[in-house]
Design goal:
By secondary structure, this protein is of the alpha/beta class. The protein has eleven helices and 14 strands. α8 links the parallel β10 and β11.
């Protein structure tokens, strides 16, 4: 898919005057696959129907990454390097610079910081809204057992919720700053973080109506939130103002331990630009003395390794799915199971 002439910001690097997301997609997946599965890499590189067949290549990446932790890390590094090489930042004058050279992009807008602390008291326990009430403590534990027994959630999900219930002191992320990219996201964690009293750095688009709602939420919460301000108002655009965003986040977080949460979304090729921008921010925040913990929402393109029992349960429940999901076709209908020994996948 070719994009029109580039606006300012993060873009696909032009090749013969065209900015093609499909060409970038095939090249990046091929680069990731090549050190582990050369044949799959050649198949991805030669794909002529990317928009229809891209799920096959993402499955191939997941399969190849399952060989070992070293394989997965090597593929991630090579794939990200290939993406950096094929993305650029277009300045206001139309000049293109490589995305990987973000530190050399000055940015055109001055950004200041406003800090707001909410007026509420922090919530000191895990609360899960369910059918008109909030489940806590033993009631929540009982409901988790019911969900697991009924095949509604996986045992690992319930185990992690129970662990959080036992450690309410974790809720406010003590000693850490949570950077939330896409603070207004409907599926993002900002409301919970504010309720728990966390230290938050919030980034979202410079939209007056959006920030009016966000500010009301911040003031009504229990957290302390740092917000970016420019002469135009609150907010920063990751795609159009990446250099300014990266510089401001580095300044506002200093040397504090950081959790970087990415909850941004856009349709089509712009989502790739957003993801590339978020990756550059993560790279810029990470230093030898300060590792960055990352969090993100999955997308329909993501593929994952799951235990055999999860796959067996999914296949068994598929014939009895609700009528309104009948048009959905899962990837496992077209791809055989990938059996991976747990011993080949060490925790790192």
């Amino acid at each position: 898919m070719a994009q029109p002439a580039a606006p300012v910001g993060v873009q696909f690097t032009a090749v013969d005057g065209q900015r093609s997301s499909s060409a970038v997609g095939t090249a990046v997946l091929a680069a990731a696959l090549r050190p582990v599965e050369p044949r799959a890499a050649n198949t991805a590189a030669g794909e002529t129907a990317w928009r229809k067949r891209y799920p096959d290549h993402f499955v191939a990446v997941t399969r190849a990454a399952a060989h070992s932790a070293d394989a997965a890390l090597t593929m991630a590094r090579d794939g990200l390097a290939a993406l950096d090489e094929r993305m650029c930042v277009v300045g206001s004058s139309g000049t293109e610079r490589p995305l990987a050279d973000l530190a050399d992009h000055g940015g055109d807008v001055a950004v200041t910081t406003e800090t707001i602390t909410g007026a509420a008291d922090p919530v000191a326990e895990v609360r899960v809204p369910y059918r008109g009430r909030e489940l806590t403590g033993d009631a929540l534990r009982d409901q988790l057992r019911t969900w697991v027994d009924g095949g509604i959630v996986e045992p690992g999900f319930a185990e992690r919720i129970r662990t959080a219930v036992e450690h309410p002191e974790w809720l406010a992320f003590p000693g850490r700053t949570v950077v939330v990219l896409g603070a207004a996201s409907a599926m993002g964690p900002l409301p919970s973080l504010l309720a728990w009293g966390a230290q938050v750095v919030a980034v979202d688009l410079p939209d007056a109506a959006l920030w009016s709602r966000l500010l009301d939420r911040v003031r009504a919460g229990a957290g302390t939130v740092q917000l970016p301000r420019t002469p135009a108002g609150y907010g920063l655009d990751l795609v159009r103002q990446l250099p300014e965003t990266a510089r401001w986040l580095a300044e506002v977080t200093g040397d504090r331990p950081v959790v970087l949460g990415t909850y941004v979304y856009a349709d089509g090729a712009v989502h790739v630009a957003l993801s590339a921008a978020a990756q550059q921010i993560a790279t810029g925040l990470r230093t030898a003395d300060r590792p960055v913990t990352t969090a993100y929402l999955a997308t329909p393109t993501d593929t994952f390794l799951v235990p055999d029992d999860v796959m067996d349960a999914a296949r068994g429940r598929w014939p009895n799915r609700p009528w309104w999901t009948r048009a959905v076709r899962p990837l496992w209908l077209f791809s055989p199971p990938c059996r991976v020994s747990r011993r080949t996948w060490p925790r790192t």
